[in-house]
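[scheduler] slot 2 assigned
[scheduler] job type: sequence-to-structure, two independent chains
[scheduler] chain ordering preserved from manifest
[runner] begin chain α
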Amino acid sequence: MSGILVVLEQREGKLHGMSFEALAAAQQMAAELSLPAYAVVLGNGIQPVAAEVAAFQFNKVHAVEHALLADYTADGYKIALKQLIELHHPTWVIFPHTYQVRDFAPGLAASLSRVLVSDVIAHRVENGKLVLVRQLFQGKMNADVRCEGEAPYFASIQAGAFRSENARKADATAAVEVMTPAIESNQIRTKSLERFRESQRAVDLGAAERIVSVGRGIREAENIAIVQRLAEAMGAELAASRPICDNGWLPMERQVGSSGQTVAPKLYVAVGISGAIQHLVGMKGSKTIVAINKDPEAPIFEVADYGIVGDLFQIVPAIIEALKK
C-alpha cells in the first residue's frame, strides 16, 4: 500500500475535530504526490465511524477492531498500528497532533526505527518528495524537514494548519476493510484513567467556531466582564492570553498560545492583546482574525484580517450594542 495513511482519532464513536484537519492534509499530500490515500480508525464496534470516513475521498478505509482497543491505551494503539503498517507498507503515516497522538505516536515510530515529525504547519513537494515545515523556538523560526531512508515516514499536523472544510467527499463510498490485530491482554501495561485536561475542560476551545480572547489591555480582572458580554452577544467562547491566566483572572483551560491551546476557529476576536509570538502561535490559523488594540503598532495587526485601533472600553460596548440591534 504505497500511499498516504491518515490515522483518525475517535472517541465513543465520534471523530475528534482535528481528525478532519489531518484528513484534509492527507488528501492534499496524496494528490500532490500522485499517491493513493487511505484512512484508519481504531476501537471496538467502530463500523459506524468507518462508514462516516468512507464518505470521503479515500482508496480504502481500515477499521482496526479489537476488544482491547475499546478504551485507548498507548500499548494497544502502538501494537495494532504497527501490525497494519507492516502489512500494508504506507509511504507516509499522518496523525492529528492531539494529546493522544503525542502519547503513542513517537513510540510507534521508534518501534519501526523511525522518527515522528511533530506539529507540522505546512508542506510542499520538491522533486517528487514531501518537505514538511514545523516551527522552532515557540514560532520564531520555521524549519524545513526532509525524511531520508526507507518509508514509512511519520508526521503529525498542528491544529489549524489545514482547514477541515477542505476535506473532500467522494461520489462513491470507499471500501471498508476490517482488521483484527493480534493483541494479548498482558501486552497492555497501562490502564486508562480520566483523560488529561481535555475531558476535564468546561470548554474545548479547539471545537469553538467563534472565540473572543482578552489580553493585558483589559487592565483589571473586574473588567473582563466587558469582554465576557461581547462573547455572549456573539455566541462565542471566552479565551485569554497567558498573562490573564497567570494572574488567575481566567482558568488556565482558556489560555491560547504556545503554552496553552492551539485554536483555529472561523472567527477569532483579540481584545487588548498585543500579539506576542507565543500567543500568535496558538491562533494564527484562525480563518478570520479581528484585532482591537489602542496601539497601531501592535504585532497582532500583522496577522489580523480586520483591525480596530482604539480604546477597547469604548469599542467593545459599541459592538455589543450593534449586535443587540
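[runner] end chain α
[runner] begin chain β
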Amino acid sequence: MSLVLADIRDGVATLTLNHPKKANALSQELVAGIVAALADFRGKKARAVILRAQAGARIWSSQPSGSRHDVGELPESRRDPLGWDDPLRNLIREIEVFPAPVIAMVEGGVWGGATETVFACDLIVAAPNAAFSITPAKLGVPYNVSGMLTFLNSACIRIVKEMAFTAKPVTAERAERLGLINYVVPNGALEAFTYDLAREITTLAPLSIAVMKEQLRILAGAHPMSPQGFERIQGLRRVVYDSHDYAEGIRAFKEKRPPVFKGE
C-alpha cells in the first residue's frame, strides 16, 4: 500500500496522506513519498498543490515528537536525532521552495511535526474539527531550531510559547482568528472550497507567483544571528537529549504509560 497518493489534473496536484493505521505519522517512508511526489509535480509544472488526509479523517497527521520519526523510531540513547538532513527538515524545505503554492486542507487533529508541516504550507484551509498542537513537552524532547522559526513565522511569539509550553491544541476557529490559518470551512464544503481556491490560482501568472513565493521565503528567513547565538541554541538541545527526562519520555510512550518527569 502506498503511504502517499498523488494525482494531478488541470494543473492542480493532490497529495493524500494514506496511512490511517498509523494516524498518518510522518515516518521516514511517508515523508519520502511526499518529497518524491513534489519532485514529480515540479516536473509536470503543477500550478498548485493540495496536501490533505483522507476525506473525513479524524486525525490529519500525528507526530507527537516533532522529530524526523514517529515516536517509536526515536532513539533512547543520548543522541540528537534531528539534523540538517533529517526527513522532516527536507520535507519542510521542499514545501517552502516548491515553485507553486502548497495548500494544506485539514480535517481532524494535527500534532507535533505535522503542525509544522501544515504551517509551512502557503495557505491553510481547515474544517471546524481541525486542531493544531505542538507536543514535544509531553515527551520530554526539544524542538528543532529551524522548526521553531517556522512557528515564529506563522504566529506571534506569545502564541508559539503557549502552544509549546502547554501542548494544548488550538482549535480551527481560534487559529483563524489568530491568523494561523486562512479559512475555516464546514466539512461538507471543505473539498469544493479548497479546489476552487487552487483552480483560481492556476488562472494567474505562475512565474509571478513563483517569484513572490521565493521572495517571501527569503524575507521570512532573514533573521540575523551570531555564530555564538546559534551555538548556544544548539547546545540547549543537548541539555535535553542528555537528560533523564528524555529517556523517560520515550520509554513511557513505548510502554503506554504517563511519563514521570524530574527536570533532570
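[runner] end chain β
[qc] chain β: Residues 65-70 have pLDDT under 50 and may be disordered.
[scheduler] slot 2 released
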